[in-house]
Each structure stands twice: as structure tokens, then as C-alpha cells.
Specification:
With about 130 residues, the protein is an all-beta fold. Helix content is about 0%, strand content about 50%.
């Protein structure tokens, strides 16, 4: 059974940086597409970025150039580096895994992923 645990969320000032981590246990992490989503109060869960099993990344237009996803298959972790943070980045950030079809790209819907973490809160103050 695959489990995901996020960490690193906190309060940060606008313009600042933050690093989120997601630790995976169970299964074969290197075969997964790993993604970050976020959900602000009263809004739907929104795709942020993903990295597939070949290391190919894809990011939403709202974070492209500011956020970077990476993975460490030896440590079963995926990291989200967030720079130039804006108040509109405030949300609960979720790590997600697609445990089959690891070479797919452009997987931007929550239903594309079958395992989710519990989320970590990121708050950006203006």
C-alpha cells in the first residue's frame, strides 16, 4: 500500500521561497508519476506540477518559472521548490501519485492520480 506524507508548509511573506517535500512508502516509487496539487478555501483542487518516471516535468501556467518539481528515487521523495511566492499561492498543497503508466505526461486532473497525501498548509502573507 502506497502512502504519501507531505511536509514543509508554513507561513511565508510574499516574494519569499519555500520547499515542500513528499515522502512515499510502499510500492515502487521510481515507476510513479508524482504531482503537486493545491486547494484554496472555497475553490476546487488545482493542478500545480508533475514529474513522470522519466523525469519529464510539466507545470501549470500560474506557477511556471516560479515552482520546480524534482524527485529523488533513492530517497523516495519528491520536492516542490517555490520561489517568488504570491498571496494567491496560499492553499493546502497535496502530493499525489499515479502508480501505473509512469511515463504519461500532461496529467492535470485529480482523477488521474490514485494515491494522495494529507496535505500541508502554505500561507503567503502580503
Amino acid at each position: 500500500q502506497v502512502q504519501l506524507v507531505e511536509s514543509g508548509g508554513r507561513l511565508v511573506q510574499a516574494g519569499g521561497s519555500l520547499r515542500l517535500s513528499c515522502a512515499a512508502s510502499g510500492g515502487t516509487f521510481s515507476n510513479y508519476v508524482m504531482a503537486w496539487f493545491r486547494q484554496a478555501p472555497g475553490k476546487e483542487r488545482e493542478f500545480v506540477t508533475h514529474i513522470n518516471a522519466a523525469g519529464i516535468t510539466y507545470a501549470s501556467a500560474s506557477v511556471k518559472g516560479r515552482f520546480t518539481i524534482s524527485r529523488d528515487n533513492a530517497k523516495n521523495t519528491v520536492t516542490l521548490e517555490m520561489n517568488s511566492l504570491k498571496p494567491e499561492d496560499t492553499a493546502v498543497y497535496y502530493c499525489a501519485a499515479k502508480t501505473s503508466g509512469g511515463l504519461f505526461v500532461f496529467l492535470t486532473g485529480p482523477s488521474d492520480y490514485d494515491v494522495w497525501g494529507q496535505g500541508t498548509q502554505v500561507t503567503v502573507s502580503s
